[in-house]
Design brief:
about 120 residues; 5-stranded mixed sheet; alpha+beta; globular
Length: about 120
């Protein structure tokens, strides 16, 4: 898939979910995203330990969906990480897990996410 096609797919998904959850840019906050997680059935597991590069990781298995979240992140990077993991929830559940590291600020096709290959 080309970068442009990927961008358009992500843009369409974002618009669809904004409409579904009646969100505007000014409405997006940690509490609103936590509410979306609750509605989607995603558990947030805060990591109390020290994480160097890991910001968040998405998991989907027979027990349900969850994210491991670095709770020491400042508010804006934590919000971005949570929204990024929602993308994995909507599009990558079949891959079971995705670990997202420091490279969020690069392109949508960044090397910051490693998705294991499906056998």
């Amino acid at each position: 898939m080309s970068r442009s096609a990927y961008y358009q797919q992500m843009r369409h998904l974002a618009q669809q979910k904004r409409g579904e959850y009646r969100l505007t840019t000014s409405d997006i906050s940690l509490s609103r995203v936590r509410h979306i997680y609750k509605q989607e059935g995603i558990t947030i597991d805060g990591c109390p330990g020290r994480l160097r590069k890991l910001k968040a990781a998405y998991f989907s298995d027979p027990d349900g969906c969850s994210i491991l979240l670095n709770m020491k992140l400042p508010e804006e990077p934590r919000l971005f990480a949570m929204l990024h993991e929602l993308k994995h929830h909507y599009l990558d559940q079949a891959l079971l897990q995705c670990f997202c590291q420091e490279v969020y600020e690069s392109s949508p096709l960044s090397r910051g996410c490693s998705v294991p290959e499906v056998p």
